[in-house]
Amino acid sequence: MRMKRFHAFRSKLGLPHSRQDFFLNFGGKNGATQLFGLYSPYFASRPSDGPVNMEVPGFPFYEPQDEGRRGLSEPLKTFLSSGSAPIVFTLGSFAPQVSGDFYDISISAARALGRRAVLLAGPKDAGRLSSSVGPDEFVCCDAPHNELFPFALCVVHHGGIGTTAQAVRAGRPQLIVPFFGDQPDHGERVQRLRLGLALKLSSYNLHNATHALAELCDNRYLRTAQDFALAMRTEHGVEAVADWIVVRIHPLIRKSLFARRVDIIFENFGAHFRALTLKLRTPAASRARRRRARRIAFDRRGDRRGAGAESYPPRFSRRLRDRRVARCVNRAAP
Predict the structure, then answer these.
(1) pLDDT tens digits, residue range 53-112?
(2) Domain range 74-232, its CATH number among 3.40.250.10, 3.30.360.10, 3.40.50.2000, 3.40.50.300
(3) Which residues have a Cβ under 8 Å from the Cβ of 321 and sit 6 or more positions away?
(4) According to the model, what pLDDT value does residue 268 have?
(5) Could you give the percent of the chain with pLDDT greater than 70?
(6) pLDDT score of 27
(7) Are the CB atoms for 84 and 116 separated by under 8 Å?
(8) 118 phi and psi, to 5 degrees?
(9) How many Å apart are CA 109 and CA 117, to the nearest integer?
């Protein structure tokens, strides 16, 4: 299903069909012109065994500028501005469906430390927790990480690459509790870079969570995270990929879509528009035909007027006039 949608998107752009699985067949030979690792080279460098045509330009942060975009709710803004920085607990967009006792342990750990907390949970957990939270806790189902994380004391999450990137970008220490996939690797990298800590999901209990969060409150982690965020601001992941697409891919897409439009015109409107279709397909030849037709018409008009030098308008130079007269003479010769 994943590759079916991928191929459909390529077809929509006018790109040729490919049998390669660019998601799972990573590291082997490929027919791609370029591969992009959409993460920061500060976070993870290009792998030594990766494809030779791979580039790591940075995290692809997306921030729509429309006024109707999702933002922080007014109750959440009020909570954030009414006290000290809270610990933010979130499981991203997928893990809330399999949260288990993550939020129960989290809220107990925050209370044990005397810290305020924001629990960004799924609808099921949010409904269950809302009835038991106190004045120092806030539960919600929806809040953009890029706006919420800068208000956090630290961030506790599952280690998804998007959530990890936003926490790094905000310059906040993080505690990663990985669930599956690449999340354990992200936790190890965060810990190795001194941007935070990592705990196995099976080890995430009240004692370990409280101890880890107490350590994260040390300003050493905060300073390291802030310095890392400053270094990462020099990256332009989205712009680098977009510039490459404009230079290398966009002309191919435009050409393909243009040819497709011409084919549609040719099929739907029949013989009456065949000349127009051919002109659209070969604009250079079309311009040459138009220039030749104008020249012949002009020469014939000159013949009717006497085919002499006086029949040409004064804007032509003497050399061009003589050349055109010579063409008329050669054409009239048997």
Answers:
(1) 788 888 888 766 655 567 888 999 999 999 999 999 999 876 666 778 899 999 999 999
(2) 3.40.50.2000
(3) 309, 312
(4) 46
(5) 66
(6) 56
(7) yes
(8) -115, 125
(9) 10
Tokens of 287: 């311009």
The answer to whether the pTM exceeds 0.85 is no
Q: Where are the alpha helices (DSSP H) in the chain?
A: 2-13, 74-81, 102-113, 123-129, 145-148, 161-170, 183-192, 206-216, 219-232, 237-244, 250-269, 274-281, 283-305, 318-332
What is the token pair recorded at 150? 């800068």
Intervals of CATH 3.40.50.2000 along the chain:
74-232
Give residue 10's pLDDT: 77
**CA dist., res. 307 & res. 325, Å (int):** 7
Q: Give residue for tokens 């790109």.
A: 15
- Distance of alpha carbon 196 from alpha carbon 235, whole angstroms: 22
Angstrom distance (rounded) from CA 111 to CA 101: 16
Q: What is the rounded distance in angstroms from the CA atom of residue 324 to the CA atom of residue 328?
A: 6
Structure tokens at 166: 């936003």
pLDDT at 16: 74
Q: Which amino acid is at 238?
A: V
CA dist 52 and 75 (Å) reads: 50
* Half-sphere exposure of residue 9: CA atoms within 13 angstroms, side-chain side: 6
pLDDT at residue 309 is higher than 50: no
For residue 37, report the phi and psi dihedrals to the nearest 5 degrees.
-90, 105
* Residue recorded with tokens 């992200």: 186
CB atoms within 10 A of CB 92: 19
Asked if residues 103 and 129 have their Cβ atoms less than 8 Å apart, the reply is yes
